[in-house]
Amino acid sequence: MAKKRLKHSILTGLTLLALVGSTIGGQSNHVNAQDKGKVLPYKNHRLSVEKRVDDLLSRMTLEEKIGQMVQPERNAVTAADMKQYGIGSVLSGGGSLPTTGNSPADWANMVDDFQRGAMSTRLGIPIIYGVDAVHGHNNVYGATVFPHNIGLGAANDTRLMKRIGQATAKEVRATGISYVFAPVLAAPQNIRWGRTYEGYSEDPRDTGKLGSALVEGLQGNVKDRDFLKGEHVASSIKHFVGDGLTEGGDDQGNVTEYTDEEIRKHIKPYKEAIKAGARTVMVTYSSINGVKTHGDHHMITEVLKGELGFTGFVISDYNGPQQIAPNDFRQSIKRSVNAGIDLFMIPHDWKNFISTTKELVASGEVSQSRIDDAVTRILRVKFENGLFETPYADRDLVAEGIGQAEHRAIAREAVRKSQVLLKNEHNILPLKKNNSKIFVAGKKADNMGYQAGGWTISWQGGSSQWMGQPEKNLIPGTSILEGIQQAAGKNTKVDFSEDGSGAQGHDVAIVVIGEPPYAEMFGDRDDLGLLQEDIDLMNKVKATGVPMVVLLQSGRPMILTEQLKDMDALVASWLPGSEGAGIADVLFGDYPFTGKLSFTWPRNIEQVNSHDKTHPLFKKGFGLKTKQTSNKKHATVK
Questions:
Q1: Is the distance from CB of 354 to CB of 70 less than 8 angstroms?
Q2: Distance between CA 31 and CA 617 in Å, rounded?
Q3: List 112, 446, 515, 520, catalytic entry
Q4: Domain edges within the chain
Q5: What is the pLDDT of residues 46-66, one digit of tens each?
Q6: What tens digit of pLDDT does each residue of 19-54 get?
Q7: What architecture (CATH level 2) is domain 405-610?
Q8: Which member of 251, 317, 384, 524 is catalytic?
Q9: Which one, of 573, 572, 555, lies nearest residue 564 by Cα?
């Protein structure tokens, strides 16, 4: 009997140890025997999302919960890591491509490989894979690349925005991805900021309207059964809050010049997009009065989650939490978790995040309830996203591919609607199609890298700062020159010169100038004047006496007051993307100019620095129609 009791006590002790070792935060680390052979509630698609979330959360250990809260870069994690650490999400930053190639199949195979690792875990929780699809699925070769947001703001067409969102979502799903970091809802107030082109308008009201339309296109209607599923994706509205309000337009800078009431105006676009169904919000790198928003409990928890009623998950920006307390990783994670961030985009130091967060919970510095709130929100979006039912790529969509003709037609429409005619002396536009000689000048007229701008294939796009020189054939599509050649007609001669030589004897010269590609802080500038090479190009053509139509490709208004008098016509072409033929559509009068400025166009840099919009070169809302040389309501020049 003594031996039996001893054996029983040993077994009982081992059993208790096993249970203790498998239970963290009160959660069992095994599936109950009575659950075997049954469809567990969280796997039952007939139950409500909230019931499924509650059931799954009740089965998770602390380690499994923390694993859901981190998002490594695809080049810093493996499928085996998915299984070992229970990772909840993976991302591709700008230019982070599959190792096998850059086709839809390469992407789908890579994402599915990560997904298989996640699905082999104890609970089989799928990952949500995120990518920067900010003007189409811009990382992927062959995708339709839409105009950057500043151009779409000039087009100001909510129905078009929704169609752009739908096309983008379908191309993203064709690569096995279901989550995009877009759109930016900033209303930039200082155009020196390097991300100005990611804003639709300087007016938060325009931004809210256009951004919400894109969100609905990406995600679907919140009341429909296919919301976030099928050919839709989850959207991340960004960057909450203060982008474009920083001192001097500095990227990742400090907001000090705006009152709480003024900042509230810039929160309204988020409120509108959340109402339209936005399910994730990305936090800004910027600070408000010295407080990094990644650690701002008031803004994230009290305002966003409380006042705005946001029930999706809040994601950090790329290594954003570490900026809270530089050189103190533990303190940074503690403050950002407690501020209300749910999913942490910590691309390479993700293992440190997992161990640090576990320690913070053990010490009581982060509560179990805060962890549960974060994971509840992440799981909620995953269930809504349909990942538990269809975790892997839809191979029919993969086979259908990207860059479809109907999507490129939408992009071409967006290009022509975004063109803003700022000057048109002697009704030089529209151009004649027949029996004329047209001269096209400037290397930027036939270069897809310049045309698409940043966030195209790589983070900086085909940038001279990034790749040595802008890449002419960075993406497939139609250059401005090719569009002109196609539209000009059989009896029109079109000549091209990169340096402007040979203009004499032509009826008209189309001179293409603009900024090189850039993204984020690489675009911050103190001087917004035209490049000297562009001024020299225009002067060379001007010297021939040939009438000159200037197309400006840029991510913001540029200071060109002194050069304006030499131009017979000026068109703000922004960053049109892959379908340059949309510019020829309006140059030759096949479609009218309808674009209107969504930003005030300054006369000088002093107006930019002082936020003086009283006597600009062109007011917000200005845009001529073809054969119109002035607009008394808005124009300040003729």
A1: yes
A2: 69
A3: 520
A4: 25-392, 405-610
A5: 999 999 999 999 999 999 999
A6: 333 333 333 444 555 566 689 999 999 999 999 999
A7: 3-Layer(aba) Sandwich (3.40)
A8: 317
A9: 572
